[in-house]
Write a structure and sequence with these properties.
The strands form 5 sheets. The chain has a 5-stranded antiparallel sheet with strand order 2-1-5-4-3. A 5-stranded antiparallel sheet has the order 7-6-10-9-8. Strand 9 and strand 10 form a beta hairpin. It contains 16 helices and 20 strands. The protein has 4 domains: 102 residues, PAS domain (Beta-Lactamase); 94 residues, Beta-Lactamase; 133 residues, 2-Layer Sandwich (Beta-Lactamase), CATH 3.30.450.40; 145 residues, Reverse transcriptase/Diguanylate cyclase domain (Alpha-Beta Plaits), CATH 3.30.70. The protein has 578 residues and is α+β, with helices and mostly antiparallel strands. It starts with 10 loop residues before the first helix and ends in a 7-residue tail after the last helix. The longest helix is centred in the first third of the chain and has 38 residues.
Length: 578
């Protein structure tokens, strides 16, 4: 038997994979399934199958042989797609499978397209039913026409209303059906049936019945619709007028036309959903997906300006913004309002104020993740009825799930930017965050501040008690910093005993309050237990600088200067260890 190595992601990654709204399988080099998230487990459970420990080709395709072009055998072959149908008691489960290599494992994502296939089949059935009705209607029309040609010669036996008139439209004879069709009209002339005192406008028989032979004219009166058929009288003098109430047929044609339009609309929406789903699976760039949504999908569903906002994993930041039909200043006002922490943290449909948007009427559709958290917002110019809103939500729901998955992946990437000892961010992540803060300052005038800190007497602790105790001192400082941060702030360890805090949406005065709070409420009473049983006071020298007092590029230098000034003041009262 082939040896199987199982790979088990750590707990946090498992939780993130379980949160993904598509099925996820991990296979090792032997093609054995080593992990299945909750969505994938549900697929196999409904089909009465087991995935964990089974070869992926046996679990998915009931095959003992590996798939042709297997990504596991051909390392680095990514992007392979396949389709599979799982037989379940409540109905078949149709899955699209996308393969890629991840951390030496083959990662399979299983997308359930059962609903889309069901809708397509239902739409096709409706279309065929409508075609059958049209064939029946056409057959009925032809039969009626043949009957009319024959029955004009036997007037009294016709069920339709039939008039015989002379060249001046004077009624010569009428059958019983005329009285049934027009019970309140005693007509001396044919046009009197419709309340006219002169011949009807555009009457085909005004130039003679020979020219009007076989022609039709419609009349509408009293909420009913009638058709009038002209033919030459058998004796060549005057003509025969056949009247028929076609109100029901007109209503039926209207209903059929409405059904056709509805089916066409549904087919269009289904096509958009399928195309959009395929695009999101094959396109890795979030900017490209956002652009495709606004430029290729939305114009078929909505006419007017639109915008898309995607929140960042850190409150007070926007990860992505894209718009069409707005000026730069209008979009700048909207995006600045969306940076509000209150706007981003609500799970309900609480929306932007109307005064923020550049239109008199607007529609706002929150993009929601699977757990009900808001991941973004779609902004549309103009009001939209409930039916159109429902169609739009068919598109925005998978879009919200896509961006939620992307944010989960972003959280995984963020973990790689953490300092192993303290759990704070590293210098690389701080640099990226500082660039984002500078963009907000230059674009929106939103201030930010830097606070630099240096642990006092770390060398003394390392030399006298060892580096393990020194590491505990560094961790104690990191925990103290973390306890005072807002969820919009960034704390990073940039060196052995050096820390930098980025205070977003903060001025110089705010940074001063932050330092005062640290020194008086945290470090004034914070001590570190030492191996000899004594308590070592934890102190940090701090310096600050903010964009309301200094240029962004000078913040680090100014904060560093103030930090060293604070360190000199500290060693003025404490012995300096060499």
């Amino acid at each position: 038997m082939e040896k199987t190595d199982f790979f088990s992601p750590d707990t946090e990654i498992q939780e993130l994979l379980h949160a993904v709204q598509t099925g996820v399988l991990l296979c090792n080099g032997g093609c054995s399934v080593t992990f299945a998230n909750s969505v994938a487990q549900d697929f196999f459970s409904r089909a009465g199958l087991e995935a964990i420990g089974q070869p992926c080709h046996k679990a998915l395709f009931c095959s003992e042989a590996r798939c042709e072009g297997c990504p596991v055998e051909r390392a680095g072959l990514e992007g392979k797609r396949q389709a599979v149908t799982l037989k379940a008691h409540e109905g078949d489960i149709y899955l699209k499978i996308f393969c890629q290599v991840w951390q030496g494992q083959c990662l399979l994502t299983l997308h359930d397209v059962s609903q889309e296939i069901s809708l397509l089949r239902r739409s096709d059935l409706d279309r065929k039913e409508l075609q059958a009705k049209n064939i029946l209607l056409e057959r009925r029309r032809r039969l009626n026409q043949e009957e009319q040609q024959f029955l004009t010669q036997i007037m009294d036996n016709l069920p339709e209303a039939l008039l015989a008139v002379d060249e001046n439209f004077l009624v010569q004879r009428q059958n019983k059906a005329v009285h049934d069709l027009f019970p309140r009209q005693m007509a001396a002339h044919c046009y009197s049936l419709f309340g006219n005192s002169v011949p009807c406008p555009d009457c085909p028989a005004q130039r003679g019945f020979s020219e009007a032979n076989g022609q039709k004219k419609s009349h509408e009166t009293g909420g009913r619709v009638y058709t009038e058929i002209f033919s030459v009288a058998p004796n060549g003098k005057g003509g025969l007028l056949l009247f028929r109430d076609i109100t029901r047929q007109v209503e039926l044609i209207g209903q059929i036309r409405g059904q056709r339009e509805e089916i066409a609309s549904k087919n269009k929406v289904l096509s958009l959903l399928v195309d959009f789903g395929i695009y999101m699976q094959k396109e890795a760039g979030i900017k490209e997906v956002a652009g495709y949504f606004l430029d290729a999908i939305l114009p078929d569903l909505h006419a007017g300006a639109a915008g898309l906002i995607i929140n960042d994993i850190r409150a007070g930041n926007i990860w992505l913004s894209h718009q069409s039909g707005m000026t730069t200043e209008e979009w700048k006002t909207v995006t600045k309002a969306c940076m509000s922490r209150d706007q981003q943290r609500f799970k309900s449909d609480r929306l932007l104020a109307d005064t923020v948007l550049p239109w008199p009427n607007s529609t706002q559709i929150p993009l929601m993740g699977a757990q009900g958290q808001r991941v973004g917002l779609v902004l549309l110019e103009g009001s939209i009825n409930q039916e159109a809103l429902g169609i739009l939500r068919l598109v925005t729901e998978p879009l919200g799930a896509y961006f939620q998955n992307q944010l989960l992946l972003r959280q995984l990437e963020e973990k790689a930017n953490k300092d192993a000892l303290t759990g704070l961010f590293n210098r690389g992540y701080l640099t990226q965050s500082l660039e984002e803060a500078q963009e907000k300052f230059h674009g929106y005038g939103i201030h930010h501040a830097l606070v630099l800190g240096d642990v006092n007497q770390l060398k003394k602790i390392n030399d006298q008690y060892g580096h393990e105790t020194g590491d505990r001192l560094i961790v104690a400082v990191a925990e103290a910093l973390r306890s005072t941060l807002r969820n919009t702030d960034i704390a990073a360890r940039t060196g052995g005993d050096e820390f930098i805090v980025l205070l977003n949406n903060s001025a110089d005065e705010d940074a001063g309050y932050f330092i005062e709070r640290l020194q008086t409420r945290v470090f004034s009473s914070l001590t570190l237990p030492l191996p000899d049983g004594s308590e070592f006071p934890v102190t940090v020298s701090l310096g600050k600088a903010a964009t309301d007092k200094h240029p962004p590029e000078a913040l680090a230098k100014e904060a560093d200067r103030q930090m060293y000034a604070a360190k000199e003041r500290f060693y003025a009262t404490a012995s300096r260890y060499r």
